[in-house]
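EI: anyone free to look at a 173-residue chain?
SC: sure, send it
EI:
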Amino acid sequence: MRDRVLAAFRWVDGHADVWRLFDDGDVLAAVVEHLAGVAASASATKVAGIESRGFILGGAVAVRAGIGFVPVRKEAGLFPGPKIIGRATADYRGIEHLFRLQQQSVSDRDHVLLVDDWAELGSQALAARRLIEQAGATWAGAALIVDQLEPSRRAELEPVTHIVTADELGPAE
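SC: here you go
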């Protein structure tokens, strides 16, 4: 899996083009299969995904794993019903996003695995964890394509699994 992700990945104008992994159906299917295996190993009952790439990836993993999907939405956009709201500390761009989770999307019987494409500082993942736990569910960990977390933040999000680390991608071009 690692080699397939590395082969598909590209830097474009100094930015990571993770969208390429979604463009190749075979790579996307392999990534989803791998992360669905993580969900099964974690005994997850739900997969959470943060808007926007987390919706694509998390939704696909939830379908493959045969479990529900929990959207974690950013501030704008329709999201009916009672919500739990929390703000993340600044991300790698310095933005502090406000996140929302529908209260009815999880219960105290759920073990929720966060699936995402990349975690740089982990601020968004940690905010999602807080919302999930505030809703009464159990944190099952984070499953990432690319892990760039510092050890202290990784410890806050454990268990964390990844396909590749940011260092393996090489320098930005």
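EI: The radius of gyration is 15 Å.
SC: 👍
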